Task: inverse folding
């Protein structure tokens, strides 16, 4: 997979893309990162990339020319997905991460200004993505979030492939609680069932705890899920337990 990043602040990416899973993925050539300063694609002598808005008003607007030239300079066989990071974009979620992870080439456009000339949105960009309902000073941090979530899904990027499959959101449920040694820490014990070695019971316990956590923290996720017969049974058990707790 090739990932291009167009930004006015390339230095923001250096630590993130060279550390941990992303750093290893690029060392192993699972992903190739190309970071460009789109100021280098400005035709003006001073490297101008923005201008005042037509019609007046405050703030500056990113000009179309440097960004079009930057994307068009990329030599690729297939048209890449060109992603504009902005608060007006579609809300980011795991399904979109899984979809983007299938692509061979992604281009991220990160702006730091009041706005983008609308022709960038209409004629250059294929996707607009927001990472949440809040406003960042620029698209760089948002692009890093998306890149991280996409690269970790590439085959071989995570040491243990199982961990991506069992992620919260991939299954549609939040993850069950995890424990490791010691079996007792400051008087707090690991649930007996996890020490029992009985795999079928452990799986059932994990599913029940995933359902418990999801119904408490993210009931909206449960509503979207097609429940299996086992899930329905476990949810009914949780409901009974809650009723008993409420009574006592
Ligand atoms: N740029 C500024 N805020 C953003 C957000 N919430 N998501 C994506 N890009 C952004």
Result:
């Amino acid at each position: 997979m090739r990932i291009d990043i167009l930004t006015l602040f390339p230095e923001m990416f250096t630590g993130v893309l060279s550390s941990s899973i992303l750093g290893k993925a690029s060392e192993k050539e699972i992903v190739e990162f190309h970071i460009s300063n789109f100021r280098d694609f400005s035709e003006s002598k001073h490297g101008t990339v923005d201008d005042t808005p037509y019609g007046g008003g405050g703030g500056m607007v990113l000009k179309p020319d440097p960004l079009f030239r930057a994307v068009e300079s990329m030599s690729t066989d297939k048209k890449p997905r060109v992603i504009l990071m902005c608060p007006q974009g579609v809300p980011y979620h795991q399904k979109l991460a899984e979809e983007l992870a299938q692509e061979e080439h992604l281009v991220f456009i990160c702006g730091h200004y009041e706005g983008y000339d609308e022709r960038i949105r209409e004629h250059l960009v294929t996707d607009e993505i927001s990472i949440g309902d809040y406003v960042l000073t620029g698209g760089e941090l948002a692009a890093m979030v998306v890149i991280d979530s996409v690269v970790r899904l590439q085959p071989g990027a995570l040491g243990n492939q199982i961990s991506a499959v069992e992620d919260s959101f991939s299954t549609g449920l939040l993850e069950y609680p995890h424990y490791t040694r010691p079996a007792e820490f400051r008087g707090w014990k690991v649930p007996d069932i996890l020490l029992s070695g009985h795999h079928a019971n452990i799986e059932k316990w994990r599913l029940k705890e995933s359902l418990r956590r999801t119904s408490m923290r993210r009931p909206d996720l449960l509503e979207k899920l097609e429940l299996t017969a086992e899930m329905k049974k476990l949810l009914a058990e949780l409901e009974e337990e809650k009723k008993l707790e409420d009574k006592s």
